[in-house]
Amino acid sequence: MHLDQLKLWFKTYQEKSLFHRYINNDFIEPLLQKLPYRFQVSEIGKSVNGESIYKVQFGTGSKKLLFWSQMHGNESTTTKALFDMFNLFSGDEKVINSILKACTVVVIPILNPDGARAYTRLNANNIDLNRDAQDLSQPESKILRQLFDIFKPDFCFNLHGQRTIFSAGNTNKPATVSFLAPAQDKDCTVTNNRKKAMEVIAEINTTLQIQIPNQVGVYDDAFNINCVGDTFQSHNVPTILFEAGHYVNDYDREKTRIFIFQSLFVSIDYITNHEVSGEFYKPYLKIPMNQKLFYDIIIRNSDKGDIAVQYQERLIDNKIVFIPKIEKISKLNGCYGHKELDANGSKVLFANEAVLKVGDENDFVFVNGEKYALTP
């Protein structure tokens, strides 16, 4: 697929009613009600707090693809991109019609609606659904597993978001998008099943590298059978983890949203037009592994050393607010800030001339008497 076409489609089909980081059922339900006839929308269960969990199905083909988003309630970028995709698939583009004939696509837009409403990673019982694949102790986990068992997908897409701390390898490049073909056994064997997932990721990476060179990473594939991706992979269904990460000055994740939209389409289009065998998996192995090398801000060379600031995301009056918090004060060689200041040996203080301490929160600091905002 030509990149210019992907860019044009995003501009044309972006769902503009969804933006920023806070997305819950109140935002998506009106959109689900407006989807055209080719989409079948149904409620497939309830969350702990009784919120609806929805399934969207479209296409009539023999290749079956299963997607789920917001398993962690505060990871909404992929949900926005899914609704951009729904808009694209509502149109009559020739390539869309061929995909609809080749594939049947099932999507859970928000698996954890309670966590989405509270803007938390966990569900209402404080359980990480991505560690509940074996116990199936939560209604949301059971709903996903039942759908997996009934639908019997050929590929699974586990859609997440990642923190700003990650770099793409041991570099000063943020991991704007990351992937994983999860392990399916404790030896992390590169099975043929995993190779199929790797081949699709390699195709996505080719498109992304043109736009965000050296800003794509992969996660460690250490096996954990309690994780949903590892479990589904162990059932011999190629499973792909998506992680929407940070792009420069993109704390709303609207730029990253574009790359997720492109990645979703490229994966569907590739599966449509190829019998994915796993033969072309090796480029995946060259994607660097994520490292935790970033802070949101580093103030270099204060009289106390380097000062690392990390934003705390908090839901306040139905908006996500980024609260700067002093995370570390030490020499931070080998670490990077998405924004960096040089104190040149000066004191760094709060407004009342208080000395900064780890754990402090404030929107600004004074460096040598000059005020600097810490908020994005």
Automatic annotation (TrEMBL):
* Keyword match Hydrolase: yes
What Gene Ontology terms for biological process does this UniProt record contain?
A: proteolysis
Q: Which InterPro entries match?
A: Peptidase_M14
Q: Which UniProt keywords apply?
A: Carboxypeptidase, Hydrolase, Protease
Do the record's keywords include Flavoprotein? no
Q: What are the Peptidase M14 domain coordinates in residue numbering?
A: 18-376
GO terms for MF: metallocarboxypeptidase activity; zinc ion binding
What sections of the protein cross the membrane?
none
Similarity annotation: Belongs to the peptidase M14 family.
Query: Which lineage ranks, top first, belong to the organism behind this chain?
Result: Bacteria, Pseudomonadati, Bacteroidota, Flavobacteriia, Flavobacteriales
Name assigned to this protein: Zinc carboxypeptidase
